[in-house]
Structures are given as C-alpha cells and as structure tokens.
Amino acid sequence: MTLALDKPRAPRRPAARRGNFELVSWVFMRVSGLALIVLVLGHLFIMNILDGGVHRINFAFVAGRWSSPFWQVWDLLMLWLAELHGANGLRTVINDYARKDGTRFWLKIMLYVSVVLILFLGTYVIFTFDATIPTTH
Amino acid sequence: MTAATVDRETSGARGDQPPVPDGAITITVKIMRFNPEVDSEPRWESFGVPALPTDRVLNLLHYVKWYLDGTLTFRRSCAHGICGSDAMQINGVNRLACKVLVKDLMSGGGKHTTITVAPIKGLPVHKDLLVDMEPFMEAFRAVKPFLITYGNEPTRERIQSAADRERFDDTTKCILCACCTTSCPVFWNEGSYFGPAAIVNAHRFIFDSRDEGSQERLDILNDAEGVWRCRTTFNCTDACPRGIQVTKAIQEVKRALLFRR
C-alpha cells in the first residue's frame, strides 16, 4: 500500500509584515471621506439653510456656537479631516504628475508647510477663541 | 536604384498592389511613425488603403507594409487575438489590431474614414509601433507569476475544487499584451508602478488555493509602487481585449491586503 501523502506541507513561511503608509493613507481617505460627508453637509446646512441661513451669521453667532464643546469638536474634526484628506489627495496628485524628483520634492514641501500652518492656525483659533472680546458694531 | 526602393525590397514589401476587391472603400490610415535613425520626434504619416468592412486593422497595416511602405514596423504574430503582440492605440484607445474590425471604425453618413494608429503609451518606442516591452515584463516578473509551494512535492497532482478554480478564473485569461498597463495614467508617469497587468497576474496566483506564495506577493504589492497607486480610473478594464475585469482584480488584491491576518 502506498502512503497517501495528500498535502505534505511544511508550515507556511511567515511573511515579512511591514507597517505600510500607503495602505493606511488609502484607508484614511475612505474613512475621512465618509466622516466629511456628514460633517461638511451638516455644517453647510447649519450655516446656509437653517433659520435664515447666511444672513444671521455674525460674531455673536460664532461665539454662541463655539461656547459649546460639541461644535468646537465638530469644527476641529472638520478642519483636521478636510485638511489631511485634501493634502493626501494632493500628495498623490503630485506623486502622479510631477516629472522630476526635484519638482516633486519642493511641491510636497510646500504642501506640508501649508498643512502645518493651516492646522496650527485653525486649531489655535478654535481653542483660544475669546467670546468676550469687545466688538465694534 | 533609389534609397526608397532598397528599403522596400529589404523590408519585406511584397511587390505590386493586388487588385482591389469588390466593395472595398478607400480609407485613410494615419500612423504615428518614428525612425530613431532619422527622426528626432515621432511624426504622423497617412496612407490611403482600400479596405473591406470585414477587414481588421491589422489587414490595413499589412497592406501598408506589403504594398505601400515596407519600412513600417510593428509586432504581430498569431493575428487572432491570442498572442498579444499587436497591442496599439487605435483611434486613441488601446486595442489589438487583429481584433478590431474596420466596420466598427467607419464614420457614418458616407463620410471619409480616417483611422489613427499609434504605439501604446508609457513604454519607450523603438521604431514606429514597436515598443520596448522590458519595463512591462520587469513588473510582471517582480510579482513572481509562478506556482510557489513549500515542503515536499505531493505524490499526486494538486487537486483543486471547481469553486477554488473559479475564484481566479478571470485573471487566467491575460495574454500580456500590455493594453491595460499602457492605458493606465499612473503607469505613464515615470514611476515604477507595477501596472494593471502585473497585478492581474499576481491575482491569478494569490487567489489560487494550490499556491503558498500569496503573502510574498501581497507584500510586494503592498509597496508604495503597488496596488495603492491604483486610482480606479477603469482604463485598464476598458482596454483589456480579453474582457478581464482588471480594476475588480486590483480591488480584490487591495481587499486581501486590508483583511489578511
């Protein structure tokens, strides 16, 4: 009788696992895109349609909204997700279209600097907004 | 004897033009020519060719090469859509010249028909429609398109269920013609994106139940130049002369990368 060795397999070789930035950024684009649909459409609805829309927006309106941590978090999330989503999209556009390594490098540097500036400035304003500043009417 | 005649004789021209068959109409074939010994830039050249509606574009190219200009250079082998040699841009889209019929390219209303033929994009042109396939083949080899197993050889054949075979059936159809890869805008860039064809051929083994090299291939495709550069523009799926759902295969590889354990 022959020995039936159906699947004489050695254990599979463990594959080298690397954390992968491209994979993470690909997932991030999908997740942040979904979140932004809610955040941005909600934001546009509140700012432009609800209760007379854009005409009621003034300092007091903004101050009123940012007195609530809920809207602070909403705007903070919207700022970070939109900025990183857009920047990552632009990064892939630069990767796809820049022909020279030098061009690619400097375009990306400009992009990253602008991201840092905008994120810093936006976050700074949301957290340090002072509703008690006397306004001129 | 002029230089032109020497060219005609040494380049496989077949002598005088044959009689024009009944029902043939003259159409213009506009071909992107490039002779590296003479031209600094590719240039367009037009030929008037008598064609039957049932002719293939390959027949028109043969007519030009055999009777009008023997120096025209292009690849073709089987001429029946199997070998994948004659991929070219026909009226702006990547097709096999042996699978496109003249009747499908005719302009309606009795207007004169012009068919443009150019080499596939993104690969270096050697001459006329002949491109260097090496970058394409290099990407193909990089994904290890062969059966990988570990341990002892089984004593009988490697059995596979019909369902397991069906899993990767679509991607077994690839003939490596490069229509998909050279229609991909990401591949046109000078990066080293593997391109759709390489991913299709990786897919063919990644989803093969008999193969044990999936993790290696997935790691290769997880690279910065791998599947994540795909922008799902579907050019590859539109271009494939074998009807492979190329973009779907790429998405399946992405999903495998996301959910592998």
Automatic annotation (TrEMBL), chain B:
<dbReference type="GO" id="GO:0046872">
    <property type="term" value="F:metal ion binding"/>
</dbReference>
<keyword id="KW-0816">Tricarboxylic acid cycle</keyword>
<dbReference type="GO" id="GO:0051538">
    <property type="term" value="F:3 iron, 4 sulfur cluster binding"/>
</dbReference>
<dbReference type="InterPro" id="IPR009051">
    <property type="entry name" value="Helical_ferredxn"/>
</dbReference>
<dbReference type="GO" id="GO:0009055">
    <property type="term" value="F:electron transfer activity"/>
</dbReference>
<dbReference type="InterPro" id="IPR025192">
    <property type="entry name" value="Succ_DH/fum_Rdtase_N"/>
</dbReference>
<dbReference type="GO" id="GO:0051539">
    <property type="term" value="F:4 iron, 4 sulfur cluster binding"/>
</dbReference>
<dbReference type="Pfam" id="PF13183">
    <property type="entry name" value="Fer4_8"/>
</dbReference>
<dbReference type="GO" id="GO:0005886">
    <property type="term" value="C:plasma membrane"/>
</dbReference>
<dbReference type="GO" id="GO:0022904">
    <property type="term" value="P:respiratory electron transport chain"/>
</dbReference>
<dbReference type="GO" id="GO:0051537">
    <property type="term" value="F:2 iron, 2 sulfur cluster binding"/>
</dbReference>
<dbReference type="GO" id="GO:0006099">
    <property type="term" value="P:tricarboxylic acid cycle"/>
</dbReference>
<feature type="compositionally biased region" description="Basic and acidic residues">
    <location>
        <begin position="1"/>
        <end position="11"/>
    </location>
</feature>
<dbReference type="Pfam" id="PF13085">
    <property type="entry name" value="Fer2_3"/>
</dbReference>
<dbReference type="InterPro" id="IPR004489">
    <property type="entry name" value="Succ_DH/fum_Rdtase_Fe-S"/>
</dbReference>
<dbReference type="InterPro" id="IPR050573">
    <property type="entry name" value="SDH/FRD_Iron-Sulfur"/>
</dbReference>
<keyword id="KW-0003">3Fe-4S</keyword>
<keyword id="KW-0408">Iron</keyword>
<keyword id="KW-0411">Iron-sulfur</keyword>
<feature type="region of interest" description="Disordered">
    <location>
        <begin position="1"/>
        <end position="22"/>
    </location>
</feature>
<feature type="domain" description="4Fe-4S ferredoxin-type">
    <location>
        <begin position="164"/>
        <end position="186"/>
    </location>
</feature>
<dbReference type="InterPro" id="IPR017896">
    <property type="entry name" value="4Fe4S_Fe-S-bd"/>
</dbReference>
<dbReference type="InterPro" id="IPR012675">
    <property type="entry name" value="Beta-grasp_dom_sf"/>
</dbReference>
<keyword id="KW-0004">4Fe-4S</keyword>
<comment type="similarity">
    <text>Belongs to the succinate dehydrogenase/fumarate reductase iron-sulfur protein family.</text>
</comment>
<keyword id="KW-0001">2Fe-2S</keyword>
<keyword id="KW-0479">Metal-binding</keyword>
<dbReference type="InterPro" id="IPR036010">
    <property type="entry name" value="2Fe-2S_ferredoxin-like_sf"/>
</dbReference>
<keyword id="KW-0560">Oxidoreductase</keyword>
<dbReference type="InterPro" id="IPR017900">
    <property type="entry name" value="4Fe4S_Fe_S_CS"/>
</dbReference>
<protein>
    <recommendedName>
        <fullName>succinate dehydrogenase</fullName>
        <ecNumber>1.3.5.1</ecNumber>
    </recommendedName>
</protein>
<dbReference type="GO" id="GO:0008177">
    <property type="term" value="F:succinate dehydrogenase (quinone) activity"/>
</dbReference>
